[in-house]
Write a structure and sequence with these properties.
By secondary structure, the chain is mostly helical. It has nine helices and three strands; from the N terminus they run αβαααββααααα.
Length: 218
């Protein structure tokens, strides 16, 4: 899965319409530049590619009165919405996702209804437990990894990863069942994007310079 596609679709969808700098600023606000490959080049490339694929529609805006270039604002299409929820469900369900994919899914999970989010996480938990059973057909943790030489450390790591992943998933399920967070259809959602012109406390120096350049154009 391309985590960039999921993150970009999620950011544009929360705005309704957003230009590339807004999306980039939001992803930095989420810290995605630290835990994923959401770098400026990949963000702008994803916007253009998904517009070509019909997942986004591009709107050309008027140039500024100061003579600055026009911006392209993007909006998620019906096809893009379907792709967004497909990627989101996959991110929450698959036990073998990379950390950046799961992180993106967690950050966007409240776009789902609570019951569906719980069902997807239950499926993830079942997959983790099945994977652990498959590993322990060949490796018994109680015997220690040394019986298989240093390769046993790989099996030991898999088992510990499965155990910690399952425990964390159970805790998350319990929190959601207990009423944590506001999911789709339950009321005012948590605002996870920055308003136009709002300062980003987590912006990189490069993004700050870009913001100043845009401000000087209007």
């Amino acid at each position: 899965m391309s985590v960039i596609r999921l993150l970009v679709l999620g950011a544009v969808r929360q705005h309704g319409r957003a230009h590339g700098y807004q999306v980039r600023n939001d992803l930095e606000y989420w810290g995605a530049h630290e835990w994923s490959n959401a770098k400026p080049g990949s963000i702008y490339h994803a916007l253009k590619q998904m517009a070509k694929q019909g997942l986004l529609v591009a709107h050309e805006t008027a140039p500024s009165t100061a003579g600055g270039p026009p911006r392209t604002e993007y909006e998620v299409t019906e096809q893009g919405t379907e792709e967004y929820f497909r990627l989101l469900r996959e991110a929450l369900t698959s036990y073998d996702q990379k950390p950046d994919v799961l992180s993106a899914g967690l950050g966007l999970m409240v776009d789902l209804e609570r019951a569906e989010a719980l069902a997807l996480l239950e499926r993830r938990l079942a997959s983790i437990e099945e994977w652990r059973r498959a590993v322990t057909e060949y490796y018994v943790p109680e015997g220690g990894p040394g019986r298989l030489g240093h390769i046993g450390e790989i099996m030991d790591f898999w088992v510990h990863s499965a155990d910690s992943g399952a425990a964390w998933t159970r805790d998350l399920i319990a929190r959601i069942r207990g009423g944590a967070y506001t999911f789709a259809g339950e009321g005012e959602p948590f605002v996870g994007v920055l308003a136009e012109g709002e300062e980003n406390p987590f912006a990189t120096e490069e993004t700050d310079r870009r913001r100043e350049d845009l401000s000087n154009q209007v």
